[in-house]
Structure formats: structure tokens, C-alpha cells
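Need residues for this backbone.
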């Protein structure tokens, strides 16, 4: 039976370190580091996510503010808010909660967030920085997965990593982060042939698809580290990942549960990114921010 990679515990440690550093920031800057979250519409899941993000900010000594806009908000009004937040000196991070209502142009809104406040890491400058190995803000979920891999303590250099899912938010940045740590990375997707056989070659297997139970136990190489990013509801309405947990746990060395794995890490890394953005914007010495 594999060991559980406890995202809640690893996230709590990171949040503790962020809280200490947030205190240092506040004393040097004379104000708290601040995240502004923009929510358009009444999507129930999004409401819960933004509330949790704002609460996590406050608990870590950051300022977390939520802007709630009605579902019929125009593109112009949304851009005006984002530009306004972009211009404010006391705002260090801006997060536009996705998905946006269909009539809004998601990409134009995301690119309107200044790159140095783009705590989601979705701006083209940040994506380019990640692609070319430069410093930038990196998407929270893959950053959280890397922290979990480090917690498991596996040597990433030369390891065979298979990432299933190639979204801009999870799969692609995940592949870049693994590559930067010298893993040999294969990025799989809906057109990949013999996906099970490919996964069974992986020392590190990341599932970021959104299909309950897609990854079966016999897709897992004995001794592999399995990170399950997926969030799905099963037939009984229970929260489950992309990995058939019980089967996979029989073979994996380490495996993340859902819930309690990647999810808590995503929020902790959002706090980390907010603090990093604030630290950089204030010109504080980078070497003094150890997270
Ligand atoms: P997405 O944009 O829908 O991308 C899904 C990816 O999975 C696509 O690349 C797709 O391939 C691939 N795919 C779909 N069906 C497949 C199949 N049968 N076999 C292999 N690949 C398949 O989703 P996302 O935003 O990356 O999110 C993925 C999952 O992670 C979702 O469940 C989401 O809720 C969850 N998530 C969790 C967190 C967290 O904090 N825990 C954060 C973000 C996302 P194509 O490109 O070929 O279509």
C-alpha cells in the first residue's frame, strides 16, 4: 500500500511559512500584501472557491478582497475594474475566477492583468518566462504538485514523468516544471494511443483530465509517485479524482488523495505567489524570501 501524500499537511506547513514572511513584508512595506479576487456571476462552485481564497489570505496575514460582479457584467466594465486594480500600488495580486460567463472574452480579461500581479501565472509573459526558464509567476496547481513531489522526496532528475492532460492551466506548465527539474516528460491527452501502457512506464504520473477513475490500478508502475489533480463527482455525488484510488494505492509508492491532495496545495501556492509578487514589486531582496 502506497503512502499518502497529504496535501492538507504540506499546505499547512507552506501557509505557516507564508504567514511568517507576510509579517516581515508588512513591517517593511508598512502595509499587508494584498490579493484582489474578481468573481463574475453566481456559479456556486466559484463562490466557494473565492470565499476560501479570501479567507486563506486573511489567515496568512495577507489582505484578501473579493469583487463580486453580476452575471450580465459587460466586457468593458470588467476590463475597467481589472485595469483599475492593475494601477493601484497597494494591490499585489489579481485573480479573475474562471470560468467567466460565456459572453465575456476570457483571454482578453486574463491578459489585462499586469504580468507582475498575475498570481495565476496565465499572462503570456509569465507563460513565456516558464517556457524559457526565466523568473516569473507560475500557475498555482502545478507549483503545488511540484511541492508534493519534493515532499515525497523522489529524485526527479532523469525520472520518467507522464502528465495526462495538456491544458494551459495544469498540464502544460506541469510539463515545463518537470522538465526544468530534468525529468523526461511525456505529455498525454485525449488523442494519445495506448494511454494505459504509457502511464505504466512512469516513475511520476500526473493525472489532470477531469474524468473520474480514468487511471486504473494497472496503469500505475509499482513504486511510482501518483499525483491526482482531477476533481470530479462520482455517481453518488462524492468528490473523486481521475485516479481509481484504491487500485492505484496498491502499487504506488506515494499517492495523493482527493480531496486533501492537490486542492489545498493550489490555495497555499496562491498565497505564496501573492507574497512573491508583493516582495518583487516592493523591491525587497529576493534572497530574504525563503518559502
Ligand atoms: P481541461 O482544460 O478540460 O483539460 C483536460 C485535459 O485532459 C485535456 O488536455 C484533454 O485532452 C485531456 N483529456 C480529456 N479526456 C481524456 C482522456 N480520455 N484521456 C486522456 N486525456 C484526456 O482541464 P484542466 O483545467 O486542465 O483540469 C483538469 C482537471 O483538474 C479537472 O478535473 C479540474 O477540475 C481539475 N483541477 C484541479 C485543480 C486543483 O486545485 N486540484 C486545479 C485546476 C484543475 P485534449 O487536449 O486532447 O482535449
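Answer:
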Amino acid at each position: 500500500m502506497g503512502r499518502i501524500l497529504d496535501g492538507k499537511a504540506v499546505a499547512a506547513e507552506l501557509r505557516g511559512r507564508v504567514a511568517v514572511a507576510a509579517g516581515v513584508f508588512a513591517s517593511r512595506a508598512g502595509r499587508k500584501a494584498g490579493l484582489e479576487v474578481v468573481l463574475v456571476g453566481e456559479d456556486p462552485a466559484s463562490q466557494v472557491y473565492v470565499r476560501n481564497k479570501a479567507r486563506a489570505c486573511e489567515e496568512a496575514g495577507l489582505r484578501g478582497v473579493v469583487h463580486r460582479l453580476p452575471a450580465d457584467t459587460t466586457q468593458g466594465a470588467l476590463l475597467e475594474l481589472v485595469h483599475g486594480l492593475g494601477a493601484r500600488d497597494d494591490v499585489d495580486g489579481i485573480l479573475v475566477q474562471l470560468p467567466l460567463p460565456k459572453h465575456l472574452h476570457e483571454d482578453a480579461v486574463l491578459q489585462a492583468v499586469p504580468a507582475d500581479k498575475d498570481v495565476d501565472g496565465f499572462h503570456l509573459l509569465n507563460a513565456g518566462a516558464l517556457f524559457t526558464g526565466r523568473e516569473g509567476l507560475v500557475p498555482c496547481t502545478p507549483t503545488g504538485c511540484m511541492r508534493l513531489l519534493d515532499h515525497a522526496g523522489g529524485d526527479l532528475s532523469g525520472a520518467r514523468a507522464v502528465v495526462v492532460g495538456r491544458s494551459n492551466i495544469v498540464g502544460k506548465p506541469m510539463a515545463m516544471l518537470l522538465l526544468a527539474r530534468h525529468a523526461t516528460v511525456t505529455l498525454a491527452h485525449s488523442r494519445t494511443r495506448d494511454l494505459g501502457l504509457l502511464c505504466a512506464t512512469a516513475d511520476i504520473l500526473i493525472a489532470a483530465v477531469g474524468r473520474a477513475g480514468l487511471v486504473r490500478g494497472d496503469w500505475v508502475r509499482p513504486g511510482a509517485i501518483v499525483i491526482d489533480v482531477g476533481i470530479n463527482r462520482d455517481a453518488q455525488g462524492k468528490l473523486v479524482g481521475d485516479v481509481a484510488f484504491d487500485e492505484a494505492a496498491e502499487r504506488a509508492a506515494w499517492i495523493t488523495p482527493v480531496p486533501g491532495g492537490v486542492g489545498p496545495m493550489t490555495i497555499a501556492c496562491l498565497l505564496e505567489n501573492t507574497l512573491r509578487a508583493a516582495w518583487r514589486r516592493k523591491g525587497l531582496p529576493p534572497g530574504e524570501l525563503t518559502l
